[in-house]
């Protein structure tokens, strides 16, 4: 099946998403980037010409591509897919991402491309991990005390 995306549509979409903070792209059925926004370029430390036209595997590597390909394929089958994972970027390093794949239908209702919206949740994920470690540390301390202990709220 031929990808259905006119040059005008690509330009309009590119203009609309250019300055969004999320990493946004459109990927074709052969896993090639058709459109990427500025945040996507920054994350990868590349110019647009270094990404558009290349495959996801070319940009992210085979190992990362093998982890996300099942989600892309589900989206090409018409499903909106939410994916969470750590991804290594050449421009910004390792980040914890929430990636949502949205099917983009062409004429006749068939999925022609995928809109990919990736949000960086690294700060939130790291805060959750610090909170979990802190809770485990204090739980361990209180479970192993030989004397009685309690918390008192002295603010009231």
Describe the 3D structure.
It is a single chain. With 156 residues, the chain is an alpha+beta fold. It has helices at 7-17, 38-44, 56-60, 62-76, 122-143, and strands spanning 23-28, 33-36, 81-89, 93-105, 111-120. Helix content is 38%, strand content 27%. Strands 2-1-5-4-3 form a five-stranded antiparallel sheet, sandwiched between helices.
How would you concisely characterize the structure shown here?
By secondary structure, the protein is of the alpha+beta class. 38% of the residues lie in helices and 27% in strands.
Q: How many DSSP H or I helices?
A: 5
- Contiguous uncertain segments of 5+ residues: none
The fraction of residues in strands falls at 25-35%
In round numbers, the mean pLDDT is 85
Give the key terms:
single chain, 156 residues, alpha+beta, 5-stranded antiparallel sheet, 5 helices, 5 strands
Write the layout of secondary structure elements.
Layout: H1 7-17, E1 23-28, E2 33-36, H2 38-44, H3 56-60, H4 62-76, E3 81-89, E4 93-105, E5 111-120, H5 122-143
